[in-house]
Amino acid sequence: MAEPDLSDPKLYFNRELSWLQFNERVLEEAEDEENPLLERLKFLAIFSTNLDEFIMIRYAGLKEQVAAGIVERSFDGLTPAEQLRAVSEALRPLIARHRKVLRQDVLPALEQHGLKLLSVGELAPSDREMVDDYFDRELFPVLTPLAVDSGHPFPRLPNLSFSLLVELFDPDRGEAKTAVVQVPSVLPRFLRLPPLDDGDRTFRFVLSEEVIRSKVTALFPGYEVRATYDFRLTRDADFEIAEDEADDLLQVIEDEVRKRRWGEAVRLEITARMPEHWADFLRTTLKLSENDVYRVDNHLNVGDFMELTQLDLPELRYPPFNTRLPTEYRGRSDVFAIVRQQDVLIHHPFHSFDAVLNMIEQAADDPDVLAIKQTLYRVGGRSPVVAALARASGNGKLVTALVELKARFDEENNIVWARELERAGVHVVYGFAGLKTHCKALLIVRREGSEIRRYVHLGTGNYNPGTSTVYTDFALLSCDPELGADVSELFNYLTGFSKQRSWRKLWVAPATLRGELAAAIEREEAHARAGGEGRIIAKMNSLVDPRVIRALYRASQAGVQCDLIVRGICCLRPGVEGVSETIRVRSIVGRFLEHSRAFYFANGGDERLYLGSADWMQRNLTRRVEAVFPVEDPAVKKKVMQVLDLCLRDNVKARELQPDGTYVRAKRKAGQRRLDAQERLLEISARRAALMGGR
Question: In what residue span(s) does the Polyphosphate kinase N-terminal domain sit (predicted)?
Fold first, then answer.
């Protein structure tokens, strides 16, 4: 039998279609009636915002390639045009399901629980009076009616703008006219109506577009309003920067972020009742194809509905949980004393972000701390991390922050933080030209007697207290001398001129990570070929890199058992005879976003376990600065392996990837107990907290 060609396109799934399958799994959580109602609404909002980003970046990129005449095939064998067609075909049924569950299921059920979205026509006179007053005071001064005729070209509408197309009639001249009114994003979309009486516990809202529609005649005095139609525009939001030629990278990125609002149109969403001639008018004006137009039979921009999930309806949400400090913190406040005693594993969201923040804040005020260095990728709004670094600088520490300005859709935030840190006296650097700095690293240099000791925090997730409550991520606190020396040299690599190509313990992209990963997989293959046990367990967000996939195929051919927990995109085809028979792939989509990366290699009994910031994608291994680090403390290793074991045994939120590319929910065997990995980890966290007296 001929040896299979591991480059055969049939052995790979398409990246774009695999991402759509991930978003379908998000949609399944919205469809799942076991989830609380507001959580289902949240999944619908996440599906919508996920899709917006996909359209702005990936779909737009495919359209650019087609327009440029690129016919090169991806490693799964499709040209850009074929991918674009396949994506369009896959999108429409997903969008139809999304709209159906919102319109027929979630919104009616929420109405039964007192959350109502009303049209202006349904309002009582007192409510109508309040709405009219709101329009006059708040909306009318902000709105701009934009005529469309020979003297007024179609307005340049920004990315993700929501507008009304207004059909007018001039009774004096007997002429039809057209105008556009953009719904202002600077004002709330949901206008809450007052309680009907003292005992009213309902939440009644009117959407801002409904208010504008009801009063739109005020914008066109002397004209009759014949009809209004909602539409929403999505533009290409990706950009490339010639970093080598940029004198001021911060200013260049700031300029590009502003331009992002005005990229080429790539998608048009229109209300289902819009007549065909108006749909054609918008489509041709915006230079879109019919495949780029989506008719929507209810609300546009469901991402905005995330706001409603924060309403005071606790019975419609997941039960609350309290994040805790790691058990090593029990009754102790000196983080450095704790870490000197043993390495500490932090597992968000089950552990509080305070476990990280306490370390930074203690370092900021500790007179023995000499220097703090930290990478910042996505830190969120009103960041306590940034405040602590600024305070440390004010206290005379030597503080260095590597702020990644190119973190997509966080560029503006990061520009603000970079400037604030610079004003506080922090050394702010932006990393390498052509590379994103994606590693999550904190280094604290402290004088202890006659010695200098390095403390490190290395993680899989961002220094962001907001996402730490909804993303699962690992982090390690350590003062291991070799690891500390590696992190110190990593920062020198990031901030200075360095051609370093080796580290003691870290695997660093783009220098060593790909080679170290390949070697680890090949060692498992060698153990299996020699008659031993080969075993790989890997957890990540995405698996795309074809060289890594081929290495896994070769390992599987040798008999290595590979269990892969891949939350999002997976281009590897498992279960193919003679190629990937021993590879299993599962995805977990649940209450928390699975974001941690962990890599286990049996290594002939000398087990190796690593955590890190990198997925197995070309961009992570080649075009980003990433750090993968070893877990060597037996107690920490045991905790990580427990998490991986739970993920592999999850039979509630796990889906298993089939050889044909479909995902099937993991099935419980006869007599097998229900096991939701995230629920079980919450239970374990609560039990450990009880041992700590509730801390």
Answer: 12-117
Same domain, 459 and 423: yes
Per-residue pLDDT reduced to its tens digit, 363-388: 999 999 999 999 998 887 789 999 99
Beta bridge partners of 306: none
Handedness of CA 36, 38, 40, 46 (dihedral sign): negative
Q: Is 471 annotated among the ligand-binding residues?
A: yes
- In the chain, the N- to C-terminal Cα span, in Å, equals 62
Residue 44 CA to residue 497 CA, distance in Å, equals 47
Residue 4 maps to a domain: no
* Element (DSSP H or E) covering residue 611: strand 608-612
Is-contact 402 431, C-beta < 8 A?
Answer: yes
475 and 348 Cβ atoms separated by less than 8 Å: yes
- What is the 8-class DSSP label of residue 568? S
Strands 427-429 and 161-170: unpaired
**Domain range enclosing 671:** 508-691
> Do 429 and 494 form a contact (C-beta atoms < 8 A)?
yes
Per the document, the length of the chain is 695
- 595 annotated binding-site participant: yes
pLDDT of residue 37: 98
Same domain, residue pair 357 and 403: yes
| Residue 264 pLDDT level (bands cut at 50, 70, 90) | very high
Domain endpoint, select from 446, 471, 499 = 499
DSSP symbol at 492: H
Burial of 457 (0-12, 13-18, 19+ CB in 10 A): buried
Of the residues 347, 351, 438, 527, which is catalytic? 438
The residue type found at 356 is V
Average pLDDT value for residue range 65-71: 95
**Model confidence pLDDT, tens digit, residues 288-316:** 999 999 999 889 999 999 999 999 999 99
**DSSP-H helix ranges across 496-540:** 513-529
Q: Is 299 a catalytic residue?
A: no
**Distant-in-sequence, close-in-space partners of 31: CB < 8 Å, separation ≥ 6:** 40, 97, 101, 105
| Total number of domains in the chain | 3
Domain end, chosen from 499, 517, 534, is at 499
> Do 241 and 144 share a domain, yes or no?
yes
Ramachandran assignment for 641, one of left (phi > 0), alpha (psi -120 to 50 degrees), beta (any other): alpha
| Annotated binding-site residue? 408 | yes
465 and 526 together in one domain: no
Cis peptide before 93 (omega within 30 of 0): no
d(CA 180, CA 286): 14
Helix (H) or strand (E) holding 330: none
Residues 103, 89, 577, 561, CA torsion sign: negative
Q: What is the pLDDT of residue 246?
A: 47
Strand 161-170 relative to strand 115-118: parallel, antiparallel, unpaired? Answer: unpaired
Left if phi > 0, otherwise alpha if psi is -120 to 50, otherwise beta: which for 534?
beta
CA pair distance 163, 147, nearest whole angstrom: 13
382 and 470 assigned to the same domain: yes
> Which stretch of DSSP H or E encloses residue 445?
strand 440-448
d(CA 397, CA 366): 9
In sequence order, the 6+-apart residues with CB closer than 8 A to the CB of 84 are 59, 62, 63, 66, 291
What CA–CA distance (Å, rounded) separates 247 from 255? Answer: 13
627 and 553 share a domain? yes
Task: Provide the mean pLDDT of the chain.
Answer: 94
The tens digit of pLDDT for each residue in 148-157 reads 998 899 999 9
Task: Clarify whether residues 397 and 259 are in a common domain.
Answer: no
The answer to whether residue 576 sits within a structural domain is: yes
- 273 is an annotated ligand-binding site residue: no
